[in-house]
């Protein structure tokens, strides 16, 4: 998957979990010890339950209640099809036509539209003409990290704010989009509902990872993040893996009233 500057990037199998914690979890003497390690790490912050759940015994997760959740978002998740045989072979980012459409006819691609939507104190490149919808500067309250980012358009500065596909394109391909026609893939690739302006490094760290392997370090945003992924997958009929579903449930366990955005 190409990053916002043209290189390729792929999701990590273990998300943002430091190696020392992965080793402790994988070599734990018992499932209960694994659970205790995970609970301590999550309590310390900075690491999402989703990136740890793949190493947790499913039985212990269910018994502990870690993957039990209720509420509107959890109800929507329960309706998604579980597919543990997802296949990303043949994936091509270009098949989604990202930034190749101008559905609102304002003369700018979807990146400019999302920047204008998500940033505050937006200033444009020009008052009229082709640059009138191109964002020159603005302030982002980044949902993924909780940081305030002062965006300035430029060769060396634009990548500080990137546009993330909340359900990553490669994940979408593996969970159903490989079977879509071109029009539906292009609609998905440029759907504002699945797009957020976010911290560039956080977006690169996420790569193509699902909630099973990556969650925002900003804990206060995790419920909405997972709920938006569920909403997108519901809208487009995409599937989830067991690990992905359990990670989402672990997050929603903390916010039973969570709605689908």
TrEMBL record:
Q: Which InterPro entries match?
A: GmrSD_C
Domain named GmrSD restriction endonucleases C-terminal is located at: 110-250
Q: Which Pfam families match?
A: GmrSD_C
| The name this protein goes by in its record | Deoxyribonuclease
Keyword annotations: Membrane, Transmembrane, Transmembrane helix
The membrane spanning regions, by residue number, are 32-53
